[in-house]
Amino acid sequence: MSLVRRQFLSRAALATSVLGAPIVASAQSKGTFNWKMTSAYGKGSPFYMDGPGSATDLARRIKEMSDGRLNISVFGAGELIPAFEGFDAVRAGTVEMNHANAYFWTGKTAAAQYFTAVPFGMNFQGMNGWLYDGGGIELWNEVYAPFGMVAMPCGNTGVQMTGWFKKEIKTAADLKGLKMRIPGLAGKVYASLGVDVKVLPGGEIFPALERGVIDAAEFVGPFQDRRLGLQKAAKYYYTTGWHESSTVSELLINKAAWDKLPKDLQAVVSNASAACNVISEAWCQKANSEAMDDLVKNQGVIARPLPDDVIKALRTETDKVLAELVAKDPLAKKVHDSYFGFKAKYDRWSEISEEAYHTRVRG
Ligand code: CA
User: Fold this and answer.
1) Do 99 and 241 have their domain in common?
2) Is the pLDDT of residue 3 over 50?
3) What is the pLDDT of residue 223?
4) 214 and 264 share a domain?
5) Band of the pLDDT at 20, cuts 50, 70, 90?
6) pLDDT tens per residue across span 101-158
7) Is the domain of 87 the same as that of 183?
8) 218 alpha carbon to ligand 1 midpoint, in Å?
9) Which tens digits make up the pLDDT trace of 264-319?
10) What's the pLDDT at 111?
11) How far does residue 22's CA lie from ligand 1's centre (Å)?
12) Which domain, by its residues, includes 89?
C-alpha cells in the first residue's frame, strides 16, 4: 500500500471514530473481480504481450489502479485458446477479455476492418481523433452489440512498413507474379495487381522468404521485422505502409461481464486502455527509430519509398476493394462513411498543421 493511501486511510479511520460511521468503503465490500484475458499473440511477443502498453502491462496497470480489485490473468495465444478464437471465447463468456486486432474478425462482421486499419487510412493522430471524438468507438460498440461485446482501443503500432522484397520494384508491372506474404484487405489489393498472395503466420515468414518460397513479405515495422530476421532474406525494404497507416490493438470485453463491473472499475479499464494506446505507440517510435538506423547502417538494408506509379495503382485497386466490401454490408458502409468523412476533414487540417510541419518547417 502506498504511503499516501496509508495516510488517507488512517485519517479516514480517525474520522470514523469521531463521527461513528464508516466513511470509506473497504476494497472488500466493493468486491474483487478475477478475469481472464487471452491474446492473439504468443507469450512474450514484444509490443502485444510484453513491454510498455502491452497486454500484460495493461493488466498490471488495471490491478494497480484498482488497488487489486480487478485482477486479470493474461494468456498468450495457445495457452488457453488458439490465437484467433478470442472473439468466440469472449462472446461465449469463457474469458472476459481478449487483446488482439479487430480486423481478425472480418469473417464475423466486415465492419471490424475499420477499427484496426484500412489501406490509405488515417495515421495514429487522425485515427485517435475519429475513435475518441469522431464517433469511432460508438460505432465499434454498435457493430459488436449483436455479439454481446464491447471494445476499445488499447494500443497502436503507428505506421507500419510496406515490407521486404528480394528485387527492386520500379513499376506496378514488377508486382505481377510476385509471391508475397500479405494478409487481409491489402492482400486483396495486391492480388488484383497480379501478386500471388500467401498468408503465413509470423514465425513462418523468415524461412519462406529465405528459401524463396515467397519473394516478398509484409509483417509490422523495423523492430518486429528485424526480430524475425527478414533483413537476412531480402534487402529492399519499402517504407511507409500504405496498407496499415496505423494499426489499432483492440480490447474486446464480454458485455455481461462489463455490466457487472462497478462504474469506478469500468473507468479504470477505460483509462488504463487509453494510457496503453499512447504508451505502446510511444514505445514503437523509440524501438523503430533505433532498429531502422541499425538495419540501414549495419545490415545493408536498402530502404526506400514505393515509386509513385505503384502507389497510384495500389490506391485505385484499394478504392475498388473497399467499394466491394461496403456494397455487401450496410453496417460496414455506415462505418466506412463515418471513417472517410472524418478523414476528409482531418486530411485538410493535417495538411496545414502536422504535415506542413514535417515537410515545410522542420526541414
Ligand atoms: Ca502488418
Assistant:
1) no
2) no
3) 98
4) no
5) very low
6) 999 999 999 999 999 999 999 999 999 999 999 999 999 999 999 999 999 999 999 9
7) no
8) 6
9) 999 999 999 999 999 999 999 999 999 999 999 999 999 999 999 999 999 999 99
10) 98
11) 53
12) 33-113+121-154+248-279
Distance from the alpha carbon of residue 219 to the mean position of ligand 1, in angstroms: 4
Let me know: does 220 contact 161? Beta carbons within 8 Å: yes
Non-local (6+) Cβ contacts of 141 within 8 A are: 150, 151
Q: Which three cell numbers stand for residue 58?
A: 495493461
> How close is the Cα of 284 to the center of ligand 1, in Å?
14
The confidence score (pLDDT) of residue 362 equals: 86
Q: Is residue 125 part of a domain?
A: yes
Q: Is residue 238 in a domain?
A: yes
Are 186 and 267 in the same domain?
A: no
Q: Does one domain contain both 87 and 145?
A: yes
Distance CA(230)–CA(207), nearest Å, equals: 9
Q: Give the distance (Å) from ligand 1 centre to CA of residue 241.
A: 9
Tell me if 296 is assigned to some domain: yes
Mean pLDDT of the chain: 92
Q: Does pLDDT of 175 surpass 50?
A: yes
Same-domain status, 144 and 258: yes
Which has the closest alpha carbon to 41: 236, 247, 295, 197?
A: 247
Please name which of 65, 128, 135 lies closest in space to residue 278, comparing C-alpha atoms: 128
Q: How many structural domains are present in the chain?
A: 2
Q: Are residues 300 and 348 in the same domain?
A: yes
Distance 258 CA to ligand 1 centre (A): 30
* Phi, psi (deg, nearest 5) at residue 13: -65, -40
Distance 220 CA to ligand 1 centre (A): 4
State whether 63 and 139 are in the same domain: yes
On whether residue 45 sits in a domain, the answer given is yes
